[in-house]
Design a protein that fits this description.
The structure holds two protein chains of two kinds.
Chain A (H helix, E strand, L loop, with lengths): L2 H4 L4 E6 L5 H10 L11 E2 L8 E5 L2 E2 L3 H10 L5 E5 L1 H5 L9 E2 L10 E3 L6 H17 L19 E2 L2 H6 L7
Parallel strand pairs in A: 1-2, 1-3, 3-5, 5-7, 7-8
Antiparallel strand pairs in A: 4-6
Helix pairs in contact in A: 2-5
Chain B lengths: L1 H6 L1 H19 L9 H10 L8 H22 L4 H21 L3 H32 L4 H4 L10 H14 L24 H24 L5 H21 L5 H25 L1
Helix pairs in contact in B: 2-9, 2-10, 3-9, 4-5, 4-9, 5-6, 6-8, 6-11, 8-9, 8-11, 9-10
The chains are: A alpha/beta, B mainly alpha.
Chain lengths: ~170, ~270
């Protein structure tokens, strides 16, 4: 009954999982008056219990992963996760380092991947708007991270066309 | 008429909040959300999976809203001004108890700050009621609204109320109790989904309560009342955009140094001038 209003007021939770702050600055730029994400009804709440979209930046460091999963599980369904920046999608240049795990989709189910180092505000807005379409169709069931349980992320959306053709490959280790 | 105003006060408050967000956006030279955005937020919150901390927390939140709505209803039916202020105080105390009833440190900190803010503004509201009694000869709202405008005899009290407006509406520079960037909403942090809806609606109802107090200063002159409410609405938004948050202890000191002194002076003005 109220499904169509999900799209009209998505509240954002932004979490930095060990990012270099590049993507965070771009997220804040897209919320600031120039790009003005509030015209879609988007607010940066900072409170997991009242938000619908989780924007994650950074390769997930071992210190931050518990908090990431904690924040994700505190968000009430329906919710979507947008991975912002190439580190968050695949691990980027930090892939296979001793203190990070490759990408955020090992721990939480990711719906939209927004690559780029750092992702530009245009890309972030595009990713968020595509996430809204997914949010409208989601159910209130609890989801599991597909990659951790051995399934590939076939339903995920990639904002970069080249990556979209290939999807994300499994890491070796 | 009073039934209509009392019943639909939350709806009017939501509408005012929508206008408020658009005005604030236009002051920052951006487009801003649609006018009906707070309604969309409410409908979306109804659609979320229910999650609660414990029952008492939810019950206190609902009681906060009911007490606030009761105080609005008392106002619209022309009740006793002191009863209205104390019913409102009761509603704030329910919210503070809700903040203390969960174990989140953010919620506790928010409740502490809410209590300090209450300590700052409550005496001034009571002094304001005393001022109305001295000018109009009664605490009844129906008598006050049938008298000549009270702003003529106590302009300083009106300025004191203007200082309180950002504090009651949780706007800069007095938004330390809510503090979205550091406390993520303070007392309301543990509410989610449908249960947050109650708190959200009561925030909207609070707007009506505050502007009703502003309207009271116009007495029987409805046109003057509309001018006062519109003027204070734009003033509050301009101040919200132009200032940053001040610390909670500075908040209490500044409110006492300005609004409390002004309210006392206004009472002296009525008695001796």
């Amino acid at each position: 009954m109220f499904e169509k209003f999900r799209k009209k007021s998505p509240w954002i939770l932004h979490y930095n999982a060990g990012s270099c702050n590049g993507c965070d600055i771009e997220i804040l730029a897209s919320l600031a008056p120039k790009y003005d994400l509030e015209r879609f009804g988007i607010i940066n709440t900072g409170n997991p219990k009242q938000s619908d979209i989780l924007l994650v930046t950074g390769p997930v460091t071992l210190k931050s992963r518990e908090r990431l999963v904690e924040l994700y599980s505190q968000m009430p369904e329906p919710k979507v996760v947008v991975a912002i920046g190439v580190c968050t999608c695949t691990g980027g240049v930090f892939r296979k380092m001793y203190n990070v795990k490759a990408g955020v989709d090992r721990y939480v189910p990711v719906d939209v991947y927004v690559p780029g180092c750092a992702s530009s505000p245009d890309q972030i807005i595009d990713g968020v708007v595509q996430a809204l379409a997914i949010l409208e169709e989601k159910s209130k069931d609890i989801e599991k991270p597909k990659r951790l349980f051995g399934e590939l992320t076939n339903n995920s959306i990639f904002t970069n066309r080249r990556e979209m053709a290939k999807k994300i490959k499994h890491e070796k280790n | 008429m009073s039934w209509f105003l009392a019943l639909f006060a939350p709806v009017f408050g939501t509408l005012v909040s929508g206008i408020d967000r658009v005005v604030r956006a236009r002051m920052q030279r951006r487009l801003g959300p649609p006018l009906m955005q707070p309604f969309y937020d409410m409908f979306k919150l109804l659609d979320k999976r229910p999650m609660m901390v414990h029952k008492l927390h939810i019950v206190l939140g609902v009681m906060h809203f009911m007490a606030l709505w009761a105080s609005i209803a008392l106002f619209m039916f022309g009740g006793h001004l002191l009863y209205i202020i104390f019913t409102h105080l009761l509603s704030v105390i329910f919210l503070i108890l809700a903040g203390y009833s969960v174990r989140s440190p953010y919620s506790h900190l928010g409740a502490n700050r809410e209590l300090l803010a209450l300590f700052a503004y409550e005496p001034i509201l009571i002094l304001m009621a005393v001022g109305f009694y001295l000018t109009c000869g009664s605490f009844e709202v129906s008598v006050i609204t049938s008298n000549s405008p009270a702003i003529v005899s106590m302009p300083l009290m009106f300025i004191a109320l203007l200082i309180l407006l950002p504090l009651k509406l949780k706007k800069s520079p007095f938004d330390a109790p809510e503090a979205h960037q550091e406390l993520c909403g303070g007392v309301e942090i543990e509410y989610s989904g449908f249960f947050y809806e109650v708190i959200y609606v009561s925030k909207m109802t609070e707007i009506i309560f505050v502007y009703a107090l502003v309207f009271l200063f116009a007495g029987q002159n409805i046109l003057l009342g509309i001018i006062l409410v519109t003027g204070s609405f734009f003033l509050v938004n301009a101040v919200d955009n132009a200032t940053g948050r001040i610390r909670i202890d500075h908040l209490v000191k500044k409110v006492y140094a300005t609004a409390f002194v002004l309210a006392l002076l206004a009472l002296g003005w009525i008695s001796y001038v």
